[in-house]
Amino acid sequence: MDGEYTERPLIIAGGAGGSAGPHGAVQYTTTDASLSPNGKDGYQSTANVGNGGTNGNGGNRGYRLTGNNVPGGGAGFRGDGVKSSDNRFEPRPTAAVAVKRNNQENVNPPGSGGTYNYNGVPYDGGFGGGGSGARNAPGGAGGYSGGGGANLDGHSGGGGSFKDGERVGNYRIEANNIGAGEVRIEYLGESLIINQEIRDEQTS
């Protein structure tokens, strides 16, 4: 992001979701980071659960009929993910936290992953606002908009990606499945800074 305490991000790279399918099954169309600003739905999503976030909001939690072992949704830039509904164990689940936090009750720092504890075993969302996992159910990925949580033995949605087309040029956005997961943002030149200085002079 440019400047201090800015309201306008330059680039946000969406994270990838995860798979808990039987026999190592994968579904990259669901779990790959979204190349649009909106997060992807988890598999399988319905009208009220597992939906990816839109417009910078967090993703919805996953689904299980009993309400147990439910993963959380990923955080967006402006909205927290929806936390797990499984409150059987202490500590209770927490939501993945947005960068521009809008939930003052959330005590975790901006960008924190959601947390879930299954009988003493943590399934935390980790870096970048990932939704908490659950036993055999992955949480939604963080991104500009958060990905949706998975159902049991399912696949969670990738997070949305964002670039400011007015201030970022010569860019390429892609997702692949080669090697370990990573986010790579490369600095390509001085043009962005120079153009910003020109605009500042014109408005002063």
From TrEMBL:
Biased composition (Basic and acidic residues): 80-91
Composition bias, Polar residues: 27-47
Region (Disordered): 1-167
Biased composition annotated in UniProt, kind: Gly residues: 50-61, 70-79, 123-162
Annotated protein name in UniProt: Uncharacterized protein
Organism: Ciona savignyi (Pacific transparent sea squirt)
